[in-house]
């Protein structure tokens, strides 16, 4: 019988199945960060249990770490305690790799996994973080889990799961110039909604996905969770294999040959049955900007802010009205007339080297507008930062009036000092525009790195295609 | 884990779709390394008029009188009635911890985000998926009937309204067993330790690079 990639990944990890179909899945890679792990380590200890396989663990501190003045350490005592707790826990139990605060390979957990070759095709990958779906770009079954599950995986190397339904999202055609992976995924969420993928495992396919780099695929899979799906993935192809060659934890020599032969089977069979198929034409996608407080509240740069009356469902209408009030927006305002205060380029969605290259290409020889109070570029990892500096991207950003920071989650969720003040409006390359996400009362608009730079330069949202054509 | 068998309680309606876990428990409270004490900060940004930070004396903060959880008639509520896609966003288990610490035992909604749904079960908090028509009716009843209470009967898999109307709901057999008995997942999984070990041995042979 022909199988979907999801069937293959699933079947390859089932250790045991309960009568009602709940399966015990074996976990290959366990990524750990400071925010969702302390209670799990504590629970483990209290129960007198030991981690099952510490060599599955890759850990880093990313959410709470500051992005400047590293010489001063972590000023906020509560943040510091959390990072120190991770240090102590990893010190006690061990790990395959640990990149603590200030390590030159430290960074956002979803950036460093693939960068280190610690995320490999065919793996199950878990992390106490919803954006674990990012790793699906490598044909992994990558689940975000809660802290109880972190403890469960530590103790048993397994996760209890029910199989989801399979959805194929097929994006065919070629995107226009200036349109990136971020625009594709925002347009998709605009189409299917933030609950559109609930209960599904999403496979992203089609020529537009195959044409993306691994960085671009990670951006798309990263936001699968914003479409409601816990996992999103892309089949293995030569682009994936090429990316993994020579990375620290990638297989070597004879193992490499064996591994790549297996990886090439990680595709859906030609006539594999999906429970749902969604199709999108890439050539119709324009650069996207969100206007509301949910990623599905999105429009093209050529569009306008909607009015609550445009929606017939009363709950939706009410939601739009509340979002516009929170966002301080008037219905029918053209998106490209919305003025902004701050710009954030970073997060596990868009902080990889390719993102920074695209952003720098737009920033080169231009300058941030006078009304912009802060324009931040936060690389996803120490290695991304190093690479960008080797290419001179930092100089381009600095000359254009951006700040160049140390790696971390930063203003994606504002657990450190990088945040919006009440009422401030931000063009952000991150993944969530929820109320207060980037700081209490802050207003977040999601967009691509190229569009974020275009907004920084104009002082309001603006079509990057006009700058670069 | 705390057992869940039958629960009877006051219902509070939270009439918004897409309530995310950042709203349920804002990130500044995630810096805690404990599992408890999040209740006073559940829905912090909606519940209080000032900005909350860890360590504040919540009893002395000014509450937002318009927020539904602050209204007198809903004090002591233990059943939360919600709309669709409740608990979307971040995987933080602090969200169910906060709801439970606040005093909720069950959440009734049209749909839930997947990770949140899962996290609830790990904490003896029962999320119940009901058809939209039943949820609409419950919203009307809750809003029009002061002191509206219902019973959630997990063994029978029904929600019972005071007028006798019973609404059946679906729950995975395995999760139901765990909740009814208050079982700890890890203990249950470790009964299969031999199977896990055997699986691991086989995997090591087939894909040695996974065990670098
Ligand atoms: S960058 Fe943002 S979304 Fe990604 S892991 Fe960090 S906080 Fe979460």
SSE topology sketch:
The complex is a heterodimer of chains A (469) and B (212).
Chain A: H1 5-11, E1 14-17, E2 23-26, E3 29-32, H2 38-46, E4 57-60, H3 77-93, E5 97-99, H4 109-115, E6 124-127, E7 141-144, H5 147-156, E8 158-161, E9 165-172, H6 181-192, E10 200-205, H7 207-210, H8 214-222, E11 231-233, H9 238-244, H10 253-263, E12 276-281, E13 288-290, E14 298-300, H11 314-327, E15 342-345, H12 353-363, E16 374-377, H13 382-390, H14 393-399, E17 403-404, E18 425-428, E19 443-446, H15 449-458, H16 464-468
Parallel strand pairs in A: 3-4, 3-6, 4-5, 6-7, 9-10, 9-12, 10-11, 15-16, 15-18, 16-17, 18-19
Antiparallel strand pairs in A: 1-2, 2-8, 13-14
Chain B: E1 6-13, H1 21-24, H2 44-47, E2 79-81, H3 94-102, E3 106-109, H4 114-121, E4 126-129, H5 132-144, E5 149-153, E6 158-160, E7 166-168, H6 173-181, H7 185-190, H8 193-206
Parallel strand pairs in B: 1-2, 2-3, 3-4
Antiparallel strand pairs in B: 1-5, 5-6, 6-7
The structure holds iron/sulfur cluster.
The site of iron/sulfur cluster has 13 residues of chain A, from loops.
Give structural notes.
- The complex is a heterodimer of chains A (469) and B (212).
- Chain A is α/β, with parallel strands linked by helices and 469 residues long.
- Chain A has helices spanning 5-11, 38-46, 77-93, 109-115, 147-156, 181-192, 207-210, 214-222, 238-244, 253-263, 314-327, 353-363, 382-390, 393-399, 449-458, 464-468; strands at residues 14-17, 23-26, 29-32, 57-60, 97-99, 124-127, 141-144, 158-161, 165-172, 200-205, 231-233, 276-281, 288-290, 298-300, 342-345, 374-377, 403-404, 425-428, 443-446.
- In chain A, helix 6 (181-192) runs parallel beside helix 8 (214-222) and helix 12 (353-363) packs across helix 14 (393-399).
- The longest helix of chain A is centred in the first third of the chain and has 17 residues, at 77-93.
- The model of chain A has no long low-confidence stretch (mean pLDDT 96).
- Chain B contains eight helices and seven strands.
- Chain B has a seven-stranded mixed beta sheet.
- The model of chain B has no long low-confidence stretch (mean pLDDT 95).
- At the A-B interface, helix 2, helix 3, helix 5, helix 10 and helix 11 of A face helix 4, helix 6, helix 7 and helix 8 of B.
- The complex binds iron/sulfur cluster.
- Residues 62-63, 108, 110, 129, 131, 347-348, 409, 412-413, 430-431 of chain A line the site of iron/sulfur cluster.
């Amino acid at each position: 019988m022909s199988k979907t990639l999801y069937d293959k990944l699933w079947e390859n990890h089932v250790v045991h199945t309960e009568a009602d179909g709940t399966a015990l899945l074996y976990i290959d890679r366990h990524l750990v960060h400071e925010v969702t792990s302390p209670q799990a380590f504590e629970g483990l200890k209290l129960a007198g249990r030991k981690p099952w396989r510490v060599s599955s663990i890759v850990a880093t501190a990313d959410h709470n770490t500051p992005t400047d003045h590293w010489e001063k350490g972590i000023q906020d005592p509560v943040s510091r305690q959390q990072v120190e707790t991770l240090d102590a826990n990893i010190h006690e139990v061990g790990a395959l790799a640990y990149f603590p605060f200030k390590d030159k390979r430290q960074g956002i957990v979803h950036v460093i996994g693939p960068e280190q070759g610690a995320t490999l095709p065919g793996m199950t990958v878990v992390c106490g973080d919803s954006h674990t779906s990012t790793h699906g770009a490598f044909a992994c079954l990558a689940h975000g889990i809660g802290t109880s599950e972190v403890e469960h995986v530590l103790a048993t190397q397994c996760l209890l799961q029910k199989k989801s339904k399979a959805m194929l999202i097929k994006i065919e055609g070629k995107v226009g110039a200036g349109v990136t992976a971020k625009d594709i995924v925002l347009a998709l969420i605009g189409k299917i909604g933030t609950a559109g993928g609930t209960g599904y495992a999403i496979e992203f396919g089609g020529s537009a996905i195959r044409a993306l780099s691994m960085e671009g695929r990670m951006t798309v899979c990263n936001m699968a969770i914003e479409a409601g799906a816990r996992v999103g993935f892309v089949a293995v192809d030569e682009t994936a294999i090429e990316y993994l060659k020579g990375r620290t934890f990638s297989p070597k020599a004879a193992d490499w040959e064996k591994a790549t032969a297996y990886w090439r089977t990680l595709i859906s069979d030609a006539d594999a049955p999906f429970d749902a198929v969604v199709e999108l034409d890439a050539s119709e996608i324009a650069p996207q900007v969100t206007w509301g407080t949910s990623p599905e509240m999105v429009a093209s740069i050529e569009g306008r802010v909607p009015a609550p009356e445009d929606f017939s469902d009363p709950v939706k209408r009410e939601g739009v009205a509340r979002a516009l009030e929170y966002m301080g927006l008037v219905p029918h305002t053209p998106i490209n007339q919305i003025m902004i205060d701050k710009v954030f380029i970073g997060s596990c969605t868009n902080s990889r080297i390719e993102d920074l290259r695209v952003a720098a290409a737009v920033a080169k020889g231009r300058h941030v507008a006078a009304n912009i109070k802060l324009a931040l570029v936060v690389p996803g990892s120490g290695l991304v930062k190093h690479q960008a500096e080797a290419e001179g991207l930092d100089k381009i950003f600095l000359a254009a009036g951006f700040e160049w920071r140390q790696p971390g989650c930063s203003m994606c969720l504002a657990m450190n000092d990088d945040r919006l003040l009440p009422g401030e409006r931000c063009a952000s390359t991150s993944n969530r525009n929820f109320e207060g996400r980037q700081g209490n009362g802050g207003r977040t608009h999601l967009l691509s790195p190229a569009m974020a730079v275009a907004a920084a330069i104009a002082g309001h949202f603006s079509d990057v295609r006009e700058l670069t054509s | 884990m705390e057992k869940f068998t039958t629960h009877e309680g006051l219902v509070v309606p939270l009439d918004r779709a897409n309530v995310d876990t950042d709203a349920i428990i804002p990130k500044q409270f995630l810096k805690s390394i404990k599992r408890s004490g999040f209740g006073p900060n559940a829905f912090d940004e909606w519940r209080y008029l000032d900005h909350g930070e860890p360590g504040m004396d919540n009893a002395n903060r000014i509450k937002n009188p318009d927020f539904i959880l602050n209204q007198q008639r809903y004090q002591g509520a233990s059943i939360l009635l919600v709309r669709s896609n409740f608990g979307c966003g971040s995987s933080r288990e602090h969200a169910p911890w906060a709801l439970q610490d606040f005093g909720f035992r069950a959440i009734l909604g049209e749909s839930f985000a997947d990770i949140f749904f899962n996290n609830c079960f790990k904490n003896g908090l029962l999320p119940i998926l009901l058809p939209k028509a039943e949820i609409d009716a419950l919203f009307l009843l809750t809003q029009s009937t002061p002191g509206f209470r219902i019973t959630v009967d997990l063994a029978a898999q029904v929600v019972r309204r005071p007028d006798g109307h019973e609404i059946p709901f679906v729950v995975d057999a395995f999760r139901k067993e765990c909740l009814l008995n208050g079982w700890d997942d890890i203990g249950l999984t470790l009964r299969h330790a031999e199977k896990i070990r055997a699986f691991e041995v086989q995997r090591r042979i087939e894909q040695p690079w996974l065990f670098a």
